[in-house]
Amino acid sequence: MRDRGFTLIEILLSVTIIGILAGLSLPVYRTFQVKNDLSIAVDTVVQSARRAQELSRATQGDETWGVDVRSGSITVFQGANYASRNTDRDETFEIASSMNVSGVTEFVFTKLTGLPQTIGSLTLTTVAGETAIVTINSKGMIDF
């Protein structure tokens, strides 16, 4: 009759294989996480811009509305610009703080028509070099 169990070599081999698999999967997981952070940031920028545009069309608070994008946050604000906004009406959303933001970072929409007062492109870049561009044209169309 033989004893049942695992030998030391079998246990070490199993632990080594699990370690190798974990080591190989970490870079794949990190790449997935970075791409997911970028996708979430783009979606949040687009949804925030559309919300500011709709609030301007609806003349909510009888004011213009805009969106300001900074590293780590996106703010939908009421007012002519971010600096002179009504802070009581801010709607702030977090994005990955490692995200680099460049280009036009503030869009304000005209009251009643919802047309943008500033047009251009906003570029979001991850630490891994992945980029996404959100563009708002003169008709208020948001392309990403």
How would you characterize this protein structure?
By secondary structure, this protein is an alpha+beta fold. It has one domain (8-143): minor pseudopilin epsh domain (minor pseudopilin epsh fold, 3-Layer(bab) Sandwich), CATH 3.55.40.10. The chain is built from 1 helix and 8 strands, in the order αββββββββ. It has one helix spanning 8-57; strands spanning 65-70, 73-78, 86-94, 100-103, 106-109, 120-125, 131-136, 142-143. A 4-stranded antiparallel sheet has the order 3-2-1-5, with helices on one face. Strands 4-6-7-8 form a 4-stranded antiparallel sheet, covered by helices on one side.
Q: Which keywords apply here?
A:
single chain, 144 residues, alpha+beta, minor pseudopilin epsh fold, four-stranded antiparallel beta sheet, 8 strands, elongated
Short structural summary:
With 144 residues, the protein is α+β, with helices and mostly antiparallel strands.
CATH superfamily: minor pseudopilin epsh domain
Work out the oligomeric state of the chains in this entry: single chain
Q: How many helical stretches? A: 1
The structural class is alpha+beta
Low-confidence stretches: none
Q: Which strand order do you get reading across the main beta sheet?
A: 3-2-1-5
Q: How far apart, in Å, are the first and last alpha carbons?
A: 70 Å
Task: State the total count of DSSP E strands.
Answer: 8
Give the topology string: H per helix, E per strand. HEEEEEEEE
- Radius of gyration over C-alpha positions, nearest whole angstrom: 24 Å
Supply the CATH class: Alpha Beta
- Main sheet characteristics: 4 strands, antiparallel
Mean pLDDT equals: 92
CATH third-level topology:
minor pseudopilin epsh fold
Shape: elongated
Number of domains: 1
